[in-house]
Amino acid sequence: MRLSRFLGLVLTVSSTSLSYSIDKLSKRDEETAPNDCKAIESLWKQKYSVANCCNIRGDNYQYITCENGRITEMVLSDNQLTGEIPSTIGNLTNLRILLLSGNQLTGTIPSTIGNLENLQELYLNSNKLTGSIPSEIGKLTKLIWLYLDSNQLTGSIPSTIGNLTNLQHSALAWNKLTGKIPSEIGNLHELYEIWLNSNQLEGSIPSTIGNLKKLVWLHLDKNRLTGTIPSEIGNLSALQYLYLDDNQLTGEIPSTIRKLTNLKYLYLNFNQLTGEIPSAIGKLKNLQELWLNSNKLKGTIPSVIGNLSNLKVLILCDNQLTGEIPSTIGKLTNMQRLILAWNKLTGKIPSEIGKLSSLRDIWLNNNQLKGSIPSTIGNLSSLQHSYFMENQLSGKIPSTIGKLSLLQDIFLEDNQLTGEIPSEIGNLTNLKYLYLNNNQLTGKIPSTIEKMSELIILDLSNNNLSGPIPDVENLTNFTTFDVSYNCIDCENIKDKSLQNGNEITCSGSVQKNKCELRCGRSWGSCPEGQCCSKEGFCGTTSSYCSHNKKCQRKYVKCVYTQKQQQQQKRDNKECDVINKLLKKDPSYNCCSDTEIECSNGHIIKIYIQGKYIYDSIPPELGNLSNLEELKVHGCYLTGSIPSSLGNLSNLKNLNFEQNILEGAIPPELGNLVNLENLKISRNYITGSIPPELGNLSNLEKLNLSENHLTGSIPSSLGNLSKLKQLFLYQNVLNGTIPHEFGNLLNLEELDLSNNYLTGPIPSELGNLSKLKTIRLINNNLSGTIPKEIKKKNIKLYTYNNPLLNDKSSNIFIVIT
User: Fold this and answer.
1) What is d(CA 17, CA 13) in angstroms, rounded to the nearest whole number?
2) Domain range 709-816, CATH architecture
3) Is pLDDT larger for residue 656 or for residue 150?
């Protein structure tokens, strides 16, 4: 996941000038600037009733500073200001800092802003500004910070921006800018970061970009850029973060990329790049994330990939790669996500893959891999998600898979696996999804699955399994148990297992404790009063589940049932929404899909995981009024979360984790008062956390981590009295930790790491008797660790908070 930190830099880099001003405020109480104050009174008078604007002191460091009868600094961010920026702002010719971000300002940026010849810092980001960027902005030759991002600006980037030769920080992202990137951008030799992403920019990347030798951050992603990646990009010797993804770039990856030896993040995914992955990529020893997915790359994965010892994320899926997975991949011991799916890879899964002890996700599905699954997979102690389906894997499922205690899903369907299902699989008590269908497995279903309390879906269909079905009535999360097309004895299935909401399924149907006769050419006719279905079963209706044709038993397993009857009913409008999302035929009965659960013809649960959807969430999902569960995980969902989802009043679980969603979290989600789990982690969500989430009185788990969220943590989250887990780590959040968190009496885990949080650790956290773990790593917290926390048996992680004075180790774990 990329780390978007630029808003945090506003706080850290600008802190010198801001604190300098605050220290001197008391000395300036007598200052007046009547003309300047009048020029901007339409802004400051909205919130402050003082007669002299030089006396403005807000609660959150808002202020106006005056010197010698002139305004020099105007900091009115996050102040709910409305209306337009007056053209008279151009009269403030002594202004050095203009910070109006995080308001609701509308209208255009006045051209008179070009009169502010002393301006060094300009922040108009996170408003509702429209129109074009005035060319007069090129007159601000002293400008160091230029943030116009997160507005609704249109038009092209003026070429006069090339006059800003002192510019170090520039963000024009998340607007509607069009046209080409001006070649004059190459004049900005002091530039440290530039954010042009999430616009509608066209044309090629100018070769002059290679002049920016001090550039560390380059964001050109999510535009409409065409042409090749200029070889001059190799001149950016200081570059650490390069994002060119989600454009229409063509040609090969330039070999000059080898010169970017400081590069940490390389995103070239979702383009039309061709050729092979250059071996030069092996020179990037500092690389942590490499995203090349969804291009047209061919050839093999170069063995030099093993040189990237710091690599944590390798995503090469959805290309045309061939050859074997190099054994050198075993050197990448820091790897957390390995996604090689949807290629044409052959050969065996290298046993060296077992050395990746930090691996959380492995996606090798939809290739042409052969051979057995290496037993070394049992060494992947951090593994949570595994996808091996639609290959040609053979041999037995290794018993070592039972050692993967954190595993949540296993997808092994559509292979050629043989042997029995290892009984050790019952050790996977966190497993939720187990797909072993469409293989050649034999033997009994292990009774140890009775211990898998988190299991939601178990699909064993289309194998050669025999024997009884284990007792699964205690698996309260169960929704689907598919054992169709096997040789299973069904006499032991008890009706009571259906009474608590469990659905023991055969070919998607609920077992009703009934076995039926085979019929047809090999079996003869049915008894009087019954007909023979096209699948070869006797019954009073023609809709029966099929049976494994290799199984020569007269009495077989389940047939037409209540759920099958329900599936004949369907709400056409509801299915239209799902069929649109899954790109199914409009006539498709979505209620027959294993990923959809219906009741009385209405959709109540959606579980979609690991599918390549690459499309936006249809707003019509908000019309599924009976929906209780909505999970679309790891499916490349794009666009924003529609506000219409706030209409799903029965929703209990909402999970959009591991997609490529952007935009803000709609405040309408605060209407989902029955919600128990809200998980939107590992996306590209921007904006602030809506305070309306504090209305979710039944929420137990909230995970918004690994996004681009900004602003402060709303104190209203302290209202979530049932909350057990709160994960907001790896965002760009600032401000203090709310004291109201002391009200979260059921909280067990709190992770706010990798943000820009300031101030002390609230002592109120010591009141939380159920709290086991607090992670506050990589922030700017100050003060000491409260004694109320020291008395508790809490794991507290606080390292890399340079202003935190307390180095005590009296707590169970304190890492400072």
Assistant:
1) 8
2) Alpha-Beta Horseshoe (3.80)
3) 656
